[in-house]
Amino acid sequence: MIEWSEQGEQQRARWRSEAGAPAPARVQPADDTLSADSAYRLACEGTALLWRGDFQNARQLLQALMRRADRKNPKAAAKAAQKLAGATPSERFHLHRQAQAQRARTLGALLIPVAGDYSIPLRRAPDWREACTEAWGPADGTPSVVALRELLGMVGAHEWRKKGVEIPALGAAPGNRIHPHYGVFSPLRGEYIDLVAQALLPSTELAFDIGTGTGVLAAVLARRGVRRVVATELAPRALACAQDNLQRLGLQGSVELLEADLFPPARAPLVVCNPPWLPARPSSAVEQAVYDEGSRMLKGFLAGLAAHLSPGGEGWLILSDLAEHLGLRSRDELLGWIAAAGLRVLGRQETRPRHSKAQDAGDMLHAARAAEVTSLWRLAVAQ
């Protein structure tokens, strides 16, 4: 619950945070009379601003806060540049995440009230009840409070869910779209999908897709002619998302969804896994597709793969080497885990990333991103 004082009375509402952040301890009602400079100062000091004015003005205020958060003070910028100049790649990564977290905390200080039916009780507020229902489930009549930045992210996810992401590897339009749900990682980076779409299949009888997410790789395998695909997933949102996508694509008869942590209780001639690429702690559900503290899923996949491969079968590990360029994991460590699991490398197919950050020289992690390679490792049981 979040609590605050307003007009001499104590108020309470449900606190909503996808990242699991605690409810702010200091909350101050705010409206259109609050200047952007004052709002930014209060946000930096840790005071949350519960908006009571015009909704569209709140959106403009958030944009003003973004400009101030991104504005570089010359002295601070020089100090930061000096600190980065002597930093190792892993130190740069952690500084980058710290800066992201600080920015998120500041911008997350602007709060919006949401009524018990998910309507927004502010002037000129849009009707976003459908987006809220998709993210939070059916309304139960309890008023809540959420950061405007998170609310906008929910609406963005709602639009992506309606529009879908075109996946060329699934064939021609319009039957080639994946519709990501809120809190499920969107397959916007297509290079890893293309690797799975182009690799030579060891069998078309059966395949496992471990940690299916939106279901995109399971769908690609089914469209490639694999007669039966078993796709596992642990997150309820991802299971619902994969089920929705498989039905949209008409593949529910070819792909079986199973709630499981990693493997189904069987063996297959092909086992595919695209685990999170960076060994770091995620700060929200959607980040769990990118960050995996201690490489838990990667290690778990490798450790259990031999026991779930049919004789002569292959395990496909789709993994970026960005963690290696950032100093978070070494190639020797990865090869050591493969060997310790009783596996051998049959081959590796590689591709370069096509996303914009790989060409952004101003990005703090540009050197690592520019060198990044995504690989499909073909693994088999060691003889």
Automatic annotation (TrEMBL):
GO terms, biological process: methylation
Region annotation Disordered: where it falls in the sequence: 1-32
Q: InterPro entries per the record?
A: N5-glutamine_MTase, SAM-dependent_MTases_sf, Small_mtfrase_dom
Q: Where is the Methyltransferase small domain?
A: 178-318
Under the heading SUPFAM superfamilies, the entry gives: S-adenosyl-L-methionine-dependent methyltransferases
Alphabetical keyword list: Methyltransferase, S-adenosyl-L-methionine, Transferase
Q: Name one GO molecular function term.
A: methyltransferase activity
Family matches, as Pfam families = MTS
Q: Which PANTHER family match?
A: HEMK METHYLTRANSFERASE (PTHR18895), MTRF1L RELEASE FACTOR GLUTAMINE METHYLTRANSFERASE (PTHR18895:SF74)
The protein depicted here goes by the name Class I SAM-dependent methyltransferase
